[in-house]
Amino acid sequence: MNEEFVFCNANEDDKDELLRLYESVKGTGYCRWNEDYPSGETIKFDLSRDALYVLKNENGEIIGAISVDDDENVNRLMCFSNVGTSFAEVSRLVISKSYQNRGLACYLVSKVMEVLKEKGVKQMRYMVSKNNPVALKSYKKLNFSRVGEATMYDDEYWCYEKML
């Protein structure tokens, strides 16, 4: 990456720009999001838990975002090891269409892994739609272990985890 990017926590001032970014990818490629998800309420939930991170370009524009989720349905999945220990699930990863295919998704996941490790989290998890070959190929570089599968939210997912 030749450009300068800033990785940081999202804040209240970022809400409208984040919602526009989410909306801009809905219905494109393999994106499984719909008109109701993610929403302003989703952003509000993530901000309330200090669990939303953004990537900004040299102009201060948000070009990517990722959340550390707290989804009880995912937390209950038995395919993940160390259930009940210190873990975090990442989700709602988005990269602006004009910045895709530059390795920024992996960069965002790696930066969040650093933050989580500093916070004492021992394991990171994520789920990827089986119908999203772009994401599956991209995340392969991160060396997570595929530990199972799940059918949720009208889709089928592969479940991945990695000790931090």
Attribute tags:
Aminopeptidase, 164 residues, alpha+beta, globular, seven-stranded mixed β-sheet
Q: How many angstroms separate the termini? A: 24 Å
Task: Examine the secondary-structure arrangement and name the CATH architecture.
Answer: 3-Layer(aba) Sandwich
Largest sheet: spatial strand order: 1-2-3-4-5-7-6
Which overall shape is indicated by the principal axes computed on the Cα atoms?
globular
State the CATH topology.
Aminopeptidase
Mean pLDDT value? 91
Protein architecture, described:
The mean pLDDT is 91. The chain contains 5 helices and 7 strands; from the N terminus they run βααββαβαβαββ. It is globular, with a radius of gyration of 15 Å. It is an alpha+beta fold. It starts with 5 loop residues before the first strand and ends with a strand. It has a single domain, classed as Aminopeptidase, CATH 3.40.630.30.
Would you summarize the structure shown here?
This protein is 29% helix and 30% strand. The protein is of the alpha+beta class.
Topology record:
Blueprint: E1 6-9, H1 15-25, H2 40-48, E2 52-56, E3 62-69, H3 72-75, E4 87-95, H4 104-118, E5 123-129, H5 133-140, E6 145-152, E7 155-163
Parallel strand pairs: 4-5
Antiparallel strand pairs: 1-2, 2-3, 3-4, 5-7, 6-7
